[in-house]
Amino acid sequence: PARVSRRTVFRHLGGKDELVFPDHSARLELLARNLVPPTGGRTPVDVVIAATEAVMLDFLSRPELVLRRYRLTRLVPELRKREVLEHERYVAMTRAYLRDHLPPDGPPFLPEALAALIDAMHRSALGNFTRSGGTTDAFAELEAGMVWIRRILAADPNAADPNAGSPLLL
Q1: For the chain: N or C, fewer Cβ within 10 A?
Q2: Alpha carbon of 16 to those of 21, 46, 63: distances in Å?
Q3: What is the rounded CA–CA span in Å between residue 13 and residue 6?
Q4: Which CB contacts under 8 angstroms, 24+ apart, belong to 13-18?
Q5: 28-44, pLDDT tens digit by residue?
Q6: Neighbouring C-beta atoms of residue 86, cutoff 10 Å
């Protein structure tokens, strides 16, 4: 037992679900701090990838928390739903960043598609890490996924919109 009253807990946290997700607000702030204007030849996609990697490193800095939370959210369906909602806040932030920083003449679906693809790589790597009990190298898997995304975007820059004349990564 923590020997802390319920009242004290709820004064510092938004509710009992916050006990399971105490780190999400700080991690969203970390993501926001890393979503900077692209400079020095970096593209908006490069910035989102780097921000996503920073978030992964933060997750992996506390593997015991990540693994305990994974086990708990599999036992309590309401917490699993909350985890999905928390996760959507990350995706919404990267999607908004891409909307604001990708060229305006690009296909309208591009911010949504790129945010979802980058997020899928993050979720896959973190999911494999948690399902394995922490034995996989989630960061290496994430990096490999990001290399794959960059290769796809570079292979045929106009594949997303056959009528577009500008590369997706501008």
Answers
A1: N
A2: 9, 37, 22
A3: 10
A4: 17/78, 17/79, 17/82
A5: 999 999 999 999 999 99
A6: 16
Express each pLDDT in 89-113 by its tens digit.
999 999 999 999 999 999 999 999 9
What is the identity of the amino acid at 4? V
* pLDDT computed for residue 33 by the predictor: 97
pTM above 0.90, yes or no: no
Mean pLDDT score of the chain, rounded to an integer? 84
Residue 79 · residue 20 · CB < 8 Å? yes
d(CA 46, CA 55): 14
153 neighbors 169 (Cβ within 8 angstroms): yes
